[in-house]
Design goal:
By secondary structure, this protein is mainly alpha-helical. The chain is built from four helices and two strands, in the order αββααα.
Length: 112
Amino acid sequence: MYELALPYAKERVAFGQPIAQKQAIAFMLAEMQIEVSSLRHLVWKAASLLEHGLDASRAATLALAYATREVMKIADNGLQIFGGHGYIREYPVEMWYRNARALTVNESVAAL
């Protein structure tokens, strides 16, 4: 979502300037970048432990829990950046948003 939202925000012009220059959009993009980087680090940590033959269950559980919590925030920010374009099938944003919602639902059901 972030990798598609960033160039879109730089190209999309509203009120005479790219929307990426708007403070609210810039904050959303920054937050998305932070969360994506954090998620990648957690997944790589778990994968590294597995690769070295160590127990990765704690690291994998933390990565899954963090991803489940943050994926909807990232997807929602992406959808907000795309605005109305986020709901049309020309962009994969609407599909990614649905997939993010399904991940959180599946995790909630698994917890029961």
